[in-house]
Write a structure and sequence with these properties.
This protein has 16 helices and 17 strands. The protein is of the alpha/beta class and 484 residues long. The chain folds into two domains: 345 residues, Alkaline Phosphatase, subunit A; 79 residues, Arylsulfatase, C-terminal domain, CATH 3.30.1120.10. The chain has an eight-stranded mixed β-sheet with strand order 5-4-6-1-7-11-2-12, sandwiched between helices. A four-stranded antiparallel β-sheet has the order 14-15-16-17, covered by helices on one side. Helix 8 packs parallel to helix 11. Bound molecules: zinc ion. Zinc ion binds next to loops.
């Protein structure tokens, strides 16, 4: 494309006229629908596609998990572009998803934690798509993602299910809602699944006993995946044996395998041909990511995510699938952020960019093209506005200038170094601080953090106190110790 035609395209898309302009440029065609699946607490490195040795999401293990062949998470990712180095800005559900749906980091949305509300002044992806004529619906399973939190902005339909079979039910509701839309309608459906979040107690599904799927049948200990068990072990600093910890990880992985089954069946259902030809799935941009990952006892015996700024929590799976516009089989190592999804959707659908968005559109990377804006890019993660993580594709800097310790419940030690650099290529578990050896790199990442801070436009919206309902929801999901 010439420079001029690029300029013209930008102008046209700014006026929403790009569809009229695309007479011969096939890459300008847009998908019809958007389907976003977010999975709570799903660590990237526990998916087989991200290198995990256990078959939580692979094609070969589909039958064992009761997953629909051809639509396992690994296969869906391989049918599109997989971002191997994707990051969330915060290890908590609400701020992470507010950033996902606004394209802005937490200081700019005003949502630094689960206790805040997404201000009405923030423009969300659902609002933009609704304004563009899409039918919009959200199906959530996390009690923090409810009308009144601000995340509902732009959704025509907002349904939640907090029952035992919530993940299966919201996927069923979402599929039924999509199928019930009039022909010709364009839809944006968002489904949030809770599976891998504590408790790690995967229920049987589709004839598969997920609690036993990866468990060692010889295990004779007492470890179980209840919140009470892991919280008590951490707070009392009981040292778990290797087999106890393996038991907990097997249960967490069972939750992931169960999500794989449910999502694969959902995708398989949407892959059925429609009367108009292409299936809903193939006519959609399908995006899957996590809000954050999970600590599985590696640091101070902590199981959870709110306290953490480690890679186990900040690195998340992210992939995009759209057969006509996303190159299948691509794996990108460029640093991608949850904040990139909003601008990516706008670019892919030919909609004008949103002003003030900080994420970058991944559309060029998704087509297999180069995008110089990603050279040397870093992912900033934070705990409130006090502790920071700065990751590039290889290293990660941890900076805790006030030497604080996170104070979320459950109580327990969780020291975070004041300043540390990890070489993730050599030390994926981030156990060896190389900030003295690689002092230059540490300084560069610190400078990147400083530049990011200087460029921030912090939210000035006042935050009102949490409603009793949302306070209760926090407490029920283990994020609040009592009335505060
Ligand atoms: Zn979450």
């Amino acid at each position: 494309m010439t420079g001029v035609s690029r300029l013209v395209r930008q102008l046209l898309s700014a006026f929403g006229l790009v569809a009229l302009a695309c007479t011969q440029a096939p890459e300008r065609a847009a998908p019809r629908h958007l389907i976003v699946v977010t999975v709570d607490t799903l660590r990237a490195d526990h998916l087989t596609a991200w290198g995990y040795a256990r078959g939580t999401s692979d094609a070969a293990g589909a039958a064992k998990r009761g997953s629909a062949a051809g639509f396992t998470l690994d296969e869906l990712a391989a049918q599109g572009v997989r971002f191997a180095q994707a990051y969330t800005p915060r290890g908590e559900t609400f701020p992470a998803l507010c950033s996902l749906f606004s394209g802005k980091p937490p200081p700019e949305t005003g949502v630094l934690g689960n206790r805040e509300t997404l201000p009405a002044t923030v423009t969300t992806l659902a609002e933009r798509l609704k304004a563009a004529g899409f039918h919009t619906a959200a199906f959530t399973t996390n009690k923090l993602l409810v009308p009144g939190s601000g995340i509902e902005q732009g959704f025509d339909v907002f349904e939640s299910d907090f029952g035992d079979e919530r993940d299966a039910r919201v996927l069923e509701r979402a599929a039924a809602w999509i199928e019930a839309q009039p022909s010709g309608a364009r839809v944006f459906a968002w489904v949030h699944l809770m599976g891998p979040h504590l408790p790690y107690e995967p229920r049987p599904s589709g004839g598969v006993d997920f609690a036993r799927l990866f468990a060692d049948p010889a295990y004779a200990g007492t470890a179980n995946g209840s919140r009470e068990y892991v919280d008590a072990a951490y707070t009392q600093q009981k040292s778990l044996t290797d087999t106890d910890r393996a038991r907990l990880v097997a249960l967490y992985d069972g939750e992931i395998a169960r999500v794989d089954q449910l999502v694969s069946r959902f995708a398989g259902r949407l892959a059925q041909p429609t009367p108009s030809g292409a299936s809903t799935l193939d006519d959609a941009l399908f995006a899957l990511c996590a809000d954050h990952g999970e600590e599985l006892g590696e640091r101070s015996g902590y199981f959870g995510h709110s306290k953490s700024i480690s890679s186990a929590v900040l690195q998340v799976p992210l992939f995009l699938r759209w057969p006509r516009g996303v190159k299948a089989g691509l794996v990108r190592d460029d640093v991608a952020l949850l904040e990139d999804v909003f601008p990516t959707v706008l670019a892919t659908f030919g909609l004008a960019p949103e002003r003030g968005v900080r994420g970058l559109s991944l559309d060029r990377l998704a087509r297999g093209e180069r995008d110089e804006r990603f050279a040397g890019r870093v992912a900033i993660g934070l705990w409130r506005f006090s502790m920071f993580s700065v990751a590039d594709a290889r290293h990660r800097l941890v900076f805790n200038p006030d030497e604080l310790e996170p104070d979320e419940i459950p109580p327990g030690p969780y020291p975070i170094p004041a300043f540390a650099l990890y070489d993730r290529a050599a030390d994926p578990r981030e156990t060896v601080d190389v900030s003295e050896r690689d002092a230059a790199r540490a300084r560069e990442l610190q400078a990147a953090l400083r530049a990011w801070m200087r460029g921030l436009t912090p939210s000035t919206d006042p935050q009102s106190p949490l409603s009793p309902e949302r306070m209760r929801a926090l407490s029920e999901q283990g994020y609040a110790g009592g009335e505060k």
